């Protein structure tokens, strides 16, 4: 019995494949909607997930338990003085702080110069908590900061701009006319952080890191408006925020909108929530194409039933049961939708890979997107193939044979 049923099933499959192969253009046009729908789902979900992973990787590079404070200040107090920074560093749950001073300056070395060099002023704490930044040489230390020494580290872009074909370490570069000695090189991959790109605000000729005290003199400012705060433990982040809010509120006389504290962990959570909402929206939009593709399959199957009325009548006259007729047409619809689904997966992965490669987004196989696309296509075949299959199985063999 089981062997007989299996033989009938394989016969139905072979007949369905033969019918599909015999109408190549119709098959392509019928499955086009499924291909577009599945490809859209996979491409959109893969690219969005890749972009999210890339941003999360950048946030992770900043480190959990790291806070970023941005100060807008008031008319009387524009930023934070060194005494203010010490008050923040003295908070119980703060392990260290790194003031940041950033500006675009003119750099010169011999006959080579550029007015698109970004200067980042940091301290020893910054390099202590971002040890991967250093590629060669030494980092900025506490003595450099305390004595406002004119030393610097440069990234690969700045090295190519100012020291093409030479080793920059130990050499001198002029920033806004002040001489700085290059003491180290920055790892280019690590330097390409999200916030670094934002601060640079577009194309530059490289980045130079100097002690923040020297950067204040270089830029002619006496205060700091941006700093990173390193918490003793990531579990103490909320407590550290409360402590710093007390200090900052006192400094700015409890006025609103004078500062902002950004929690990297909260930003990551918010990013993941936005991604989930976007994913749902994109899947809903792409599913419309699958529905259109399903209607196309149903139309084609209804036409097929009409064209094959005589064949159905002969099979029924020879003893074929309605369930067998229904199964044959249902299998044909499922094969069509799965064929479109497989092609859609290939197209979707190809498109998403091309987008990721050309936009420096992490690419990874999204198994959920692939499974969703294939299962959707199979469901479309079953749902939209059932009505034509049912119609074929209910044909009266006598009426069908009259069409001969």
What does this structure look like?
- α2 runs antiparallel to α11 (264-307) and α11 (264-307) packs antiparallel against α13.
- The chain is an alpha+beta fold and 404 residues long.
- The chain is elongated.
- The protein has helices at 2-21, 24-62, 82-89, 124-129, 142-146, 156-162, 188-191, 194-200, 212-219, 237-251, 264-307, 309-317, 322-358, 367-393, 397-402; strands spanning 66-71, 94-109, 112-122, 134-137, 151-154, 172-175, 178-186, 207-211, 226-231, 259-263.
- It is built from 15 helices and 10 strands.
Q: Return the string of H and E elements.
A: HHEHEEHEHEHEEHHEHEHEHHHHH
Estimated structural class? alpha+beta
Structural Rg: 33 Å
How many DSSP helices? 15
Poorly predicted runs are 190-200
Binned, the helix content reads: 55-70%
- Give the integer mean of the pLDDT values: 81
By DSSP, the count of extended strands is 10
Shape category: elongated
How are strands sequenced across the largest beta sheet?
Answer: 2-3-8-5-7-6
Biggest sheet record: 6 strands, mixed, barrel
Amino-to-carboxy terminus distance = 34 Å
| Strand residue percentage | 15-25%
